[in-house]
Write a structure and sequence with these properties.
Structural class: alpha+beta
Number of helices: 4
Radius of gyration: 16 Å
Length: 138
């Protein structure tokens, strides 16, 4: 099962990230995972939130450019080596990981890793065939 990720395109200037979080807070949107990648002029903020449609509506109304995409959220034990085991599965199956980020939001002693995979369906099969838990919502 895939989950939806919101990407927000931001100018790399002081206060822009704060504006996004304020818009989401005012719309009562809870951020479950967050990552930002930046260049000299722009950044891409990636979010997993509890209410995608409401978040996109609020961000669009505030003038932000957003995009919704599919990612895989894999729950792993929060201990050394857990991520390495998942990475080895993808490596052995030649599934390219475009990027990843993590959230400690999950069950006690668990972490959730968000993967953007080049071949999402193949990645999902590898995860489920190897007994890993895929998070549909958190």
């Amino acid at each position: 099962m895939q989950i939806k990720q919101i990407s927000v395109f931001l100018e790399n200037s002081s206060g822009r990230l704060g504006e996004v979080t304020k818009v989401l807070a005012e719309a009562a949107i809870n951020i479950r995972a967050i990552s930002i990648a930046d260049t000299a002029d722009f950044g891409i903020l990636r979010l997993i939130v509890d209410k995608n449609d409401d978040a996109i509506t609020a961000l669009t109304k505030a003038g932000f450019t957003t995009r919704l995409s599919d990612v895989v959220a894999v729950e792993v034990v929060d201990s050394p080596g857990s991520l390495a085991k998942v990475m080895e599965l993808f490596q052995n199956s030649k599934v390219n990981i475009e990027y990843l980020y993590a959230s400690l939001e999950g069950k006690t002693g668990k972490a959730v890793i968000i993967f953007k995979l080049e071949n999402l369906e193949q990645g999902l099969k590898i995860v489920t065939d190897n007994g890993l838990s895929v998070v549909e919502k958190f």
